[in-house]
Design brief:
By secondary structure, the chain is of the alpha+beta class. It has a single domain, classed as Nucleotidyltransferase, domain 5, CATH 3.30.420. Strand 1 and strand 2 form a beta hairpin.
């Protein structure tokens, strides 16, 4: 290979897998999926949106099942995606391909933070399982752990007396 490092499984027809997430503004994952490493991210946009569970907001009416606004990176900047999102009542805020960085979209890096939390779990950083369904189960378990951490931290900040009863060292 003449001084070139090991190639990524995404670059060639070898086994590999990708984690796909859709998260809300506080980096809590709403839906996750697992695909082969050679699939483009944009193929999972609408299956992930469809996988978002209904969320009660405490108000009247039906629970909300889709976001009002969707922020995405340049990989999702296709006119057909924008049209399909508008048809579903979702306002797309997608960074334009070819536009200079610093447009304000993607400043927060919420999804990358959630991926860092997920890949901090060793079982998800390196795939040890041969079967995809088992690895996807670990992915969903990791999503649940992240959501639980958010709930516990939120409750703890609302009532600090909970620290007497909770061991927060593992969070």
């Amino acid at each position: 290979m003449n001084g070139v490092g090991p190639r990524s499984p995404v670059d060639r027809a070898r086994p590999g897998s990708k984690h796909h997430l859709i998260v809300e503004g506080w980096a809590i994952p709403l839906a996750a999926s697992l695909t082969g490493g050679n699939r483009h991210d944009s193929t999972q946009l609408f299956p992930l949106i469809d996988a978002i569970p209904r969320v009660r907001t405490g108000g009247r009416g039906r629970p909300r099942s889709r976001p009002k606004t969707l922020y995405a990176d340049r990989g999702y900047d296709y006119p057909v995606f924008r049209r399909r999102l508008w048809r579903r009542g979702i306002q797309p805020k997608i960074a334009k391909r070819g536009a200079p960085h610093g447009s304000g979209l993607g400043k927060v890096r919420v999804v990358e933070r959630t991926f860092a939390w997920l890949h901090g779990m060793r079982r998800l950083r390196v795939r040890y399982e041969r079967r995809a369904d088992i690895h996807e189960a670990f992915l969903k378990l990791g999503v649940c752990v992240i959501a639980l951490r958010h709930v516990i931290r939120l409750c703890w900040t609302l009532d600090p007396r909970l620290s007497e009863h909770l061991d927060l060292r593992w969070l």
